[in-house]
Automatic annotation (TrEMBL):
GO MF annotation, one: ATP binding
EC number of this enzyme: 5.6.2.4
Domain (UvrD-like helicase C-terminal): residue spans on this chain: 310-573
Pfam families in alphabetical order: UvrD-helicase, UvrD_C
The UniProt record lists the keyword Cell inner membrane: no
PANTHER family named among the record's database cross-references: DNA 3'-5' HELICASE, UVRD / RECB / PCRA DNA HELICASE FAMILY MEMBER
UniProt keyword Endoplasmic reticulum present: no
Protein name: DNA 3'-5' helicase
Highest taxon, organism lineage: Bacteria
Family: Belongs to the helicase family. UvrD subfamily.
Catalysis performed (reactions): Couples ATP hydrolysis with the unwinding of duplex DNA by translocating in the 3'-5' direction; ATP + H2O = ADP + phosphate + H(+)
GO terms under cellular component: cytosol
Amino acid sequence: MSVAAAYLTKLNPEQRRAVEHGAASTEAGCGPLLVIAGAGSGKTNTLAHRVAHLIVGGADPRRIMLLTFSRRAAAEMTRRVERIAAEALGAKAGVMTDALTWAGTFHGIGARILRDHAGEIGLDPGFTIHDREDSADLVNLCRHELGFSKTETRFPTKGTCLAIYSRAVNAEMALEEVLRAAFPWCMAWTAELRALFAAYVEAKQRHNVLDYDDLLLYWAQMVAEPALAAELSGRFDHILVDEYQDTNRLQSSILIALKPAGRGLTVVGDDAQSIYAFRAATVRNILDFPGQFDPPAEIVTLDRNYRSTQPILAAANAVIGEAAERFTKNLWTERTSGEPPGLVTVRDEIDQARYVADRILENRETGTALKAQAVLFRTSHHSGPLEVELVRRNIPFVKFGGLKFLDAAHVKDMLALLRFVQNPRDRVAGFRVLQLIPGVGGSSAARLIDQMTGVRDPFGALAEAAAPPRSGDDWPAFVDLALALRSGRAGWPAEFGAARLWYEPHLERMHEDASVRRADLLQLEQIAGGYPSRERFLTELTLDPPDATSDQAGMPLLDEDYLILSTIHSAKGQEWKSVFVLNAVDGCIPSDLGAGTSSEIEEERRLLYVAMTRAKDDLHLMVPQRFFTHQQSSTGDRHVYAQRTRFIPPSVLKNFQLTTWPIAAQQANAGRAAAQPVKVDIAQRMRGMWR
Ligand SMILES: Nc1ncnc2c1ncn2[C@@H]1O[C@H](COP(=O)(O)OP(=O)(O)OP(=O)(O)O)[C@@H](O)[C@H]1O
C-alpha cells in the first residue's frame, strides 16, 4: 500500500467511499455527493479526510471552498485536515492547509465574496455589517418614521418585524405566506409590513450596511446572474458543506447556482439533528439534494456510531424513534457494554444542582477530568442554580451559548466606534458613538450625522462641525480620535488600544462596575490582535461572535481543568465522556417557547436527541419536580410542578435506569405529607394577631 493511502485504512468502508468519491475521475471535479451521517458516525472526521485526500491527490487548496456552521468548526476542520495530510505530505501539509483560505461560514465567506466583487454588483466595498440587534434598531427607526409605532392597535415589535422579514428572505417565501404560516396574528398588518420592509431596505442602502440576511441574499442575487456565477464558480473546483441539515433555502440556491451540475459538490448532514428550523433552515435541503442533478448525487450513509455505548445509543434511538417523520436509519455500535442512561428525579432545581455537582466530583475522583464532562440545557438561564452550586464548591466551569459578550453595552460601544470609523454612513453606529460624548443627545447626534451625510469627506465635515454645547474638551478629543483612527496610521490592532484609551474615562463615568467592564475590553483587545485588519475583525466578530469569552480570547484556562456548561444548540458537533442534561421536563424540553406547532415540537425532540448523542460513556437526564417561577421577586416562593418530558413516554422509559434522589429524604417527605396531621396552624395564629 502506498504511503498516501495509509490514512484511509482507519476508515470504515462507507467512510472510505465518501472520502474517495470521484478520486478516479479524470475530468476537473467529480459528481455530486450526499453523505447522510448519523450522530457520532464520524461525519467531521470523514469530511476532513475527504479534504485531505483531495489535497494529497493534487487538488489546489486555494480552489476548495469549505462551508461549516461556525468559524470554530472551520478552524477545527482545517487542523484535522493538516494532521491527516501530514501522514502523506509530511511538513509540506502545513503550507497546503494554510492555503485553505476559503474555509468558513456561509455568512463569512459571503461577506468576503461581496467585498471582492462589490464593484461589479453596485455595492460600496466599505460596507459594515449589522448584527441582529443593530438591525432591529434600524427597523425600529423606520417604524417610527412611518408612524407605525403610534397606531391605535399595537403594531408588531421591532423584533417581530425583523423575524418576519428574515424568514421571508431566508425561506424565499412571500410575505403573506410567512405571516399565514408563522405569524398569523400579524396578518392585519400585511400592507404596513411591506411598506416597512421597503423602507428598511432603502435605509440599509443609504447607510451602506448589510444585515446577516443580506450577505446571503446579495450573494444569491449575484450568482443568479449567469456571467457572475460562471466567474465565481470557476474559482472553485470543490465546494464542501458540513451540517447541511441546518442550511436554508437561500443557501441551497447559492450552491446550486454555483455548481448547477453538482460537479465538485459534497454536502454532509443528518436530518435527525436538524435544530435550526426556527431560523428557516430546512431539512428538505438534504432530502431534495440528490434529485436536483442529472445524474443524481451519489448517496453514502454512515450509520455506525463510534461515540456512545450501546445502552446510550438505544435510548437515543428510542427517543428519535418517536419522531413523526425520519429518514436516517437507527445507529449501531460495537461498544456493547455500559450502564443504561440514568433518569434521575429530584425535588427541585436546587437538588438538581447538588446531584449534578456530586456526580461530577465523583467522576473526577475516578479519573474523568472536568473537561471530559458537560452539563447541557435548553436555555441559558436553566443553569443558574447550578452555577451557584459550582461557585460555592469551587468547581471551575466555562459556559457556552447564551453568554452575550457582544451584547454588553460597553462592548457594543467599542464596536460601534470602530464601525463608525470604518463606515461613517452607518447611522446606527454613529448614533450610538456620538451619544457617548457628554452633552451630546439624540438630536445633536442626528444633526452631526446629517452634516456628515452626502459629503465627499465625512470626517472633514465632522471636524468642521460646531462643537455641541456643553461638550467641553470631550468634543475635540473625540474628533482627534476619529480622525486618527480613520487615517489608519497607527495600524491594527494599535488602533484598538487608542480607541480603548479614549473610551475608558467615559466607561468610568457611565458605569459603577467599570473595572469589570474594562477587563472585557482588554479581552476584546486580545481577540482584536488575532485579526489582520479592522475590517476583518469587525466582519468576523459580527458574523460569528464568540460563544464564551474564553472561546476566542487568550485562553487563560487552557492548562487548567474546567467543566463545560453549554446550551444544547452550542453543543452541536461536540462529545464528552459524561453528559448531564438538565430539566428534562415539559416546559423546558420541549420549551414553552417552542411548543406551538407540531414542527416546533419535532425540532425540540431532535434537540433532546442531539443532547443525548453527545455522551460517550455516561448520560444522566435530570427531572426536577418543582420549579420556582421566574416572574416574581427574588424572595418569592411561587412554584409549579413539572412533568417528565413528553419525549420519554412510557414505551421509551425502559431504556433508562430510574432513580430518585436523595432517596431517604424523598421517602421521608412523601411519608410525612401523607401521614402527619397538621400540628399547628401558624397562618391562623398570624391572622389572630390582628383581631
Ligand atoms: N473510522 C473510525 N474509527 C474509529 N473511530 C472513529 C472513526 N470515525 C470516527 N471515529 C470517532 O467517532 C467519534 C465521532 O466522530 P465525529 O465527531 O467526526 O462524528 P460526527 O458524525 O461529526 O458527530 P455528530 O454529528 O454527532 O456531531 C470521534 O471520537 C471520532 O474520533
